[in-house]
Amino acid sequence: MDIPEITISLKCLFCGSDLEGPEDEEYNSGDLIKCIKCGKENDYDSVLEIAKDEGLEAVKAQLQNKLKNMFK
């Protein structure tokens, strides 16, 4: 079965922009990530939870689509 790659970016909770930072930076639970666009600080745990939910929804949608196509 062909498994497509899914990419989910971390988004600012305030303005919706993709969060960017130094590639060598590591974040941990409780850390705050500053948005380059709006300057507000985002809670790492909340940002990660939303990204996980988005990823799960994307996988569910692809699976439903594959199942629908298999039984046509």
In short:
This protein has one helix at residues 44-70; strands spanning 32-34, 41-43. It is mainly α. The protein has one domain.
Description:
The protein is mostly helical. Helices cover 38% and strands 8% of the residues. It has a two-stranded antiparallel sheet with strand order 1-2. A hairpin with a 6-residue loop joins strand 1 and strand 2 (41-43). It is elongated. The relative contact order is 0.20. The mean pLDDT is 92.
State the low-pLDDT regions, or none: none
Describe the main β-sheet briefly: 2 strands, antiparallel
Give the strand tally.
2
Give helix % range.
Answer: 25-40%
Number of domains: 1
Q: Which strand order spans the largest sheet, edge to edge or round the barrel?
A: 1-2
By secondary-structure content and strand pairing, the structural class works out as mainly alpha
Radius of gyration: 16 Å
Strand content: 5-15%
Calculate the mean pLDDT score and round it: 92
Overall form: elongated
Termini gap: 17 Å
The secondary-structure element order is EEH
**What is the overall number of helices?**
1
